[in-house]
Amino acid sequence: MKLFQKISIKNKIIAIILIVSTVTMIIGFTLVGISDIKSLKQEMLLNNLMNTKLIGEYTVAPLTFDDNEGAKNILSKLSTIPGVNKGALYDRNGILFSFYKKSEDIFVNPLFENPDEIEVSRTSFSKSALLIEHPIVYENFRYGIIIIEVDTSLLTEKMKEYIIILLGILIGMIVFSFILANRLQKPISQPILELAKLTRKISGKGDYNVRIERKSNDEIGILYDNFNEMLQQILNREAARDVAEKKLVEAKEKAEESDRLKSAFLANMSHEIRTPMNAILGFAELITMPDSEVTPNEKGNFIKLIRSGGDNLLRLIDDIIDISKIEAGQIKIHKKECNLNQTLKEIQQSFFEIRKHKGKGQIDIRLNENAQSQNIVIKTDPLRLNQILTNLIDNALKFTEEGFIEFGYEILNEEKILFYVKDTGVGMDHKKKDMVFDRFTKIEDDKTRLYRGAGLGLAISKSLVELLGGRIWVESTLGEGSTFYFGLPFDKLKELEKPEKPLAISEDYNWANKTILVAEDEPANVVYIEEVLKITKAKVLKAMNGKEAVEIFEKNNDIDIVIMDIKMPEMDGYEATKQIKKLNKDIPVISQTAYAMPGDIDKGLDSGMNDYLIKPVKPKLLLSVLNKHLNRLSPTG
Fold first, then answer.
1. Taking Cα atoms as reference points, which of 232, 258, 432 lies closest to residue 330?
2. Which of 82, 93, 237, 396 has its CA 20 to 30 A from that of 32?
């Protein structure tokens, strides 16, 4: 079919005529040939059957008087019939009475099995012979059976000659059809070729004022008229194109402005919500101090409620922002090196803490063998991979009351890696599997429990997987659990010899000889950070903006680490970090900010920041990140 598309219309018309005529002739010749061949076989059969019956009648007397010589003389007449190989005469008991054979090497069976079964003449064609078996009956009395075998090679030769003649006629007719088709196609192909020539002229010169003259009243004539009308429409559209292009430019500028405003709105929303949440969640963990007016038991309950509510609100805000960015097409993938096993182990460590806060410490959260034994570095977006797995594990933890949650990966081939999250939770009906990734959709098969959430996590995960070039799906059985799979393009960079340990969260901090500079314009957040750092005995210097932070750093040579906010008056955190790095390129600068967009994170790291913490920053995480960088500065660290 591809070859047919590439040939000219002239050859297409000729080819169609030849194909139709050839197929028609082949079918007709085949039917005629089959009919004639059947006639030849039938003619041969009838002639030999008639001879067999005639000779059988002559053998009644020899069979009656047991005259073998007479029977032999009668059978010898078979030599005069063309093609007869042998003839045999059997008495009524099936015993050979007499026979004739063309040559000595022809075998004649001395017995005829079951002679009483043959009531009428039987004939059969084999590959090389015609066999006739005829009962000899006279006045309703059976005298015997006569068998004649006739060579069909003569019939085969006639059939071959007949087929050769038919093929010769067919080839001649095909040649004649080709000559006739070649002449008859011109009235069809010539006008089309003229039209093609005109279109090449128009495309080459861009002149739409030319017209083609109609020469017939058939479909091609109508095509000419439609083509001329199309040229006029193009001229009309060109006249309005400049106006349309101007409007399009204006619309593009408005769309870009709208896109810029939307991005700014999302960034400001994230900042304005995260900043107060930083203080709320921070002080919620600090109200367990002894001077509190409520009982320790009440404090513990209040802390759990405030923290749980704050975490849920923060997660909801994150999801709304992510889904808004996805709908607006603002999510960008930033691929870089990612230590896969370290990332998975850090996720596992974080969920060890999360399961305790959710009262599900009995659930085993484990990694598969690959995530524990292999140690590979791949190229992907670590932030988005972490977000996908976190959403899937959090979803599994929500619907699992006992058993385990297992996650990890398998390397399918050199081009694809398969991640999975498996749980022993409530599972779902197979009819609802297609709905689980829809936005704002919640699958709740257990009517006795209410599973909270906005139904955005899996929809976000699906969108992120697709942005990374993969596909996500779920396999689940109601009452037995679910397994979420997602495959990603596998871009392996290297395999490390020794596994890198994930960030360890230690609770033993003693930094009495350390000085920490805190740049933060929100007083409540400054108090919160000071309270967190009290247990470390470190010296804390405070700056209310980026400019003041640079000035303090210039005057103090003993500063060991800087905690830097981003949005501050006079000078923001990005610029302040650049100025400080110019003074001391080795000083660690840790961001703690409410700007949570991927572009903001990249901008912070590009400015020289060593770590990027997103508000609300929890005490243990802040202390562990500071500890990591301070240990690197220590001679023994």
1. 258
2. 82
